[in-house]
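Response to reviewer comment R2.3. The reviewers asked that we include at least one raw input/output pair. We reproduce the pair for Response regulator here without editing.
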Amino acid sequence: MDDHPLFREGLVAAIDLDDHFTVVAEAASGEEALTEAARTAPDLVVMDLGLPGLSGIETTRQMLIAHPHMRIMVMTMSEDDDNLLAAMRAGAHGYLLKGALREDVLHALHTVARGGAVFSPQMAERLSALFAACGSTPAREAFPTLTAREREILDLLAVGLSYRQIAQRLCVVDKTVRNHVGAIFSKLQVHDRAAAIVRARNAGLGPQPQ
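Raw output as returned:
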């Protein structure tokens, strides 16, 4: 979803070269994006922030309310901290800066489609700095309802491990990890892994800035 036709055409061409993706719709405004999302129900959306009319952030928020299982990756020129945080609060699963190489864009799309979260290196550094500036709360105090095992799994999620890697680390089956993750989502009142990671890192879990 982007209001610049040339950028949109280039992005569509790049995505169409990947056999794993099929472009089902394009939109030039937030309102059009919501209409197309309702019509085509895509699994993955690439969202610009600078849309005319309804902003990309508000479009993301409304889209995920209507389609909670949809995955949305923001792709924008904006390196603004407020936009980064607003996009994450709206539920975006990734934040990539325009100008990224084609292979980086496709890698990001695959990661987000699989349930991961992706940020441009510059934005990941900003995110860590923002969390550090806000200070951190010990995880046990921040999430008192989590069990010790749930807190351990949340920490490993924040490090960036996949469910399978966590299962191998804890010597349990994948289903056990997914059951714990479901409980974590419920207790943290989040809807996906990306949001849980944000909450975890904000509380001091996972990799911390040096």
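The two ends are 36 Å apart (CA to CA). The first helix runs from residue 5 to 16. Further pairs are available on request from the corresponding author.
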